[in-house]
């Protein structure tokens, strides 16, 4: 083995050791801060644990109250059956007035480039901000500011959305988190796409959760549409269950080869188009090649935790 090869091996071993130490330290912080979160994050990656922990606590009929904000293309029973068999349901529409009000809030509020609290700007000033910054931004988020927007609060408490979540989760849903996110057409490395959730991945934020997504801008195939792999017919491999959220480091091509490229669904639509999905199933926001995309998402789960992945 040459000196160069020895140096490469040493560098790789050092990298693995650092990552392993950081992983163990992170898990210890979870355990010390919130044991229930630690056990969820450890076990919820396994399908048997998910199903056991979320076995129904009550009987919820396949009916739901009408919504003043959201319309579905199918009846409630079909929405739920599709969620249970495919992991996602596509066919929601957000009222045009709500879309307009949300975008007005988004344009007037301060957002944060690349989810960095030090990169605050208003979206209409993006070009000038990027020029001062000396680089292009990949995404921009509002963190939790949308919780103060009246239109968002109406959507968050929408009776139809909560009834669907209640039936899917088998218990009264708990609001976990939400985000309003801009995605921009800029060059990005693989690592940057992983950080921006633009590669196939799964989210494990509770033993079972349901997310509602709404486009606030028109989204075509080049604007970063949401994509997902339908649940089944190939079951999640044991190795991928063990990896959990670290499956984001597996190349998309590998996951598509295992679970079937024909099972991949690309969701395009005009502003106001919406869909619901269980984020345990592989999905991604495609990297935009032109224009930008604004996505609103609301996640409901079984219980709230004192901590979160990026809070400790």
Tell the overall outline. Answer: globular
Here the CATH topology of the largest domain equals Jelly Rolls
From the helix content, strand content and strand pairing, which structural class follows? alpha+beta
Tally of separate domains? 2
The CATH class of the largest domain turns out to be: Mainly Beta
Number of DSSP strands?
A: 12
Q: Order of strands across the widest beta sheet?
A: 1-2-10-7-12-6-5-3-4
Please give the alpha-carbon distance between the first and last residues: 42 Å
The CATH level-2 architecture of the largest domain is identified as: Sandwich
Question: Mind summarizing the main beta sheet?
Answer: 9 strands, antiparallel
- Strand percentage lies at 15-25%
Unreliable stretches covering 5 or more consecutive residues: none
Number of helices: 11
Radius of gyration: 20 Å
Topology order in helix (H) and strand (E) letters = HHHEHEHEEHEHHEHEEHHEEEE
* Mean pLDDT across every amino acid position: 89
- Fourth-level CATH superfamily of the largest domain: q2cbj1_9rhob like domain
What is the percent of helical residues? Answer: 25-40%
């Amino acid at each position: 083995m040459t000196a160069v090869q020895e140096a490469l091996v040493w560098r790789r071993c050092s990298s693995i050791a650092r990552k392993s130490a950081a992983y163990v330290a992170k898990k210890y912080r979870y355990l010390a801060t919130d044991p229930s979160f630690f056990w969820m994050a450890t076990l919820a990656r396994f399908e048997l644990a998910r199903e056991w922990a979320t076995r129904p606590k009550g009987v919820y009929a396949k009916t739901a109250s009408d919504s003043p904000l959201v319309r579905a293309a199918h009846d409630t029973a079909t929405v739920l059956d599709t969620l249970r068999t495919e992991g996602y349901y596509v066919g929601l529409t957000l009222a045009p007035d709500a879309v307009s009000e949300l975008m007005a809030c988004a344009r007037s509020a301060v957002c944060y480039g690349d989810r960095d609290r030090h990169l605050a700007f208003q979206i209409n000033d993006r070009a000038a901000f990027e020029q001062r910054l000396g680089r292009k931004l990949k995404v921009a988020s509002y963190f939790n500011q949308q919780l103060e927007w009246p239109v968002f609060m109406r959507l968050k408490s929408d009776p139809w959305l909560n009834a669907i979540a209640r039936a899917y989760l088998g218990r009264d849903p708990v609001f976990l988190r939400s985000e309003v996110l801009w995605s921009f057409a800029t060059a990005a490395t693989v690592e940057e796409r992983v950080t921006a959730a633009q590669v196939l991945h799964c989210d494990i934020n509770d033993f079972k959760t349901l997310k509602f997504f709404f486009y606030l801008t028109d989204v075509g195939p080049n604007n970063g549409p949401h994509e997902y792999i339908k649940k089944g017919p190939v079951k999640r491999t044991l190795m991928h269950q063990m990896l959990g959220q670290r499956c984001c480091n597996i190349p998309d091509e590998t996951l598509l080869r295992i679970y079937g490229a024909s099972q991949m669904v690309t969701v395009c639509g005009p502003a106001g188009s919406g869909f619901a999905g269980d984020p345990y199933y592989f999905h991604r926001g495609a990297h935009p090649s032109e224009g930008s995309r604004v996505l609103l998402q609301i996640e409901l789960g079984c219980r709230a935790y004192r901590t979160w992945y990026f809070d400790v």
